[in-house]
UniProtKB/TrEMBL annotation:
NCBIfam families for the chain: baf
Identification of the protein by name: Type III pantothenate kinase
Assembly mode: Homodimer.
Catalysed transformations (reactions): (R)-pantothenate + ATP = (R)-4'-phosphopantothenate + ADP + H(+)
Cofactor(s), by name: K(+); NH4(+)
Binding note for cofactor: A monovalent cation. Ammonium or potassium.
E.C. number(s) listed in UniProt: 2.7.1.33
Molecular functions per Gene Ontology: pantothenate kinase activity
Keyword Transferase applies: yes
SUPFAM superfamilies per the UniProt record, alphabetical: Actin-like ATPase domain (SSF53067)
Enzyme superclass (EC): transferase
Species this protein is from: Marinobacterium rhizophilum
Similarity comment: family membership: Belongs to the type III pantothenate kinase family.
Length: 240
């Protein structure tokens, strides 16, 4: 079987296809990662495919483990100028995050046409691919947790010390509510602005959404398909 791994800035996500159970999935918190946590992976692995945006140390950790346990060298996806029908818009493709690239490869080959890919993780990335596979460009903005931590750690007089359990966008009547409702407001504003841009500039594009906050984003947008494994799906198109 093939073990597929997506090493993001917050989580390491993995999956493999089991003949009896179908897809087996899991995720590990990157900040607390060590080799002992990889014991959940299967004993019989024929190959390992990896997407990594978490730096060389994390990539090296996984590589050492795969070599020690299975005598395997993992295949790491790289951003290319052209792959699987998609053409990169970057003058230097290596400067694009591989997670964005894999998301576009998977999305374009899933819909077989124009597509907008939104990945709501540590950062929110939005990318547009035309019907002929040309990447038209994209946006990168802070994700929900990054907006929260940046605001609270860099603004001395903003202290969120009260819990806010439910998703809400009404004006807050205490600082905690004002912070968290405000971030919800921003996420919704991004979703609504994207809908306007799709209608004006990419009317035929389908919307695919992934990432930890992707399901919420799709709900706010009121359209689009939530695809939690989109980056992992892209490993097939980049490496198979």
């Amino acid at each position: 079987m093939i073990l597929e791994i997506d090493i993001g800035n917050t989580f390491l996500k993995w999956r493999y296809a089991d003949a009896e159970r179908g897809w087996v999935r899991g995720r590990l918190l990157g900040a607390q990662l060590d080799e002992t946590q990889f014991a959940c992976w299967p004993d019989e692995v024929a190959g390992v495919r990896v997407a990594c945006v978490a730096g060389v140390e994390m990539a090296a950790l996984v590589s050492r483990y795969c070599q020690a346990r299975w005598k395997l060298t993992p295949e790491f996806a790289r951003v290319e100028r052209h792959a699987a029908g998609v053409s990169n818009s970057y003058a230097d493709p290596s400067r694009m995050g591989v997670d964005r690239w894999l998301g576009m490869l998977a999305a374009y080959n899933q819909v077989k046409g124009a597509v907008c890919v939104v990945d709501c993780g540590s950062a929110i990335t939005i990318d547009f691919v035309s019907a002929d596979g040309t990447h038209s460009g994209g946006y990168i903005v802070p994700g929900v947790r990054l907006m929260t931590s940046s605001l609270l750690s860099n603004t001395a007089r903003v202290v969120a010390d009260q819990g806010v359990e439910q998703f809400d966008m009404t004006p807050g009547t205490h600082t905690s509510a004002a912070v968290f409702h405000g971030i919800n407001f921003v996420l919704d504003a991004i979703a609504q602005r994207l809908l306007q841009q799709l209608a004006a500039d990419y009317p035929s594009a389908q919307l695919l959404v992934t990432g930890g906050d992707g399901e919420l984003f799709a709900r706010l947008a009121g359209r689009g398909e939530y695809c939690p494994d989109l980056v992992l799906d892209g490993l097939h198109w980049a490496l198979a």
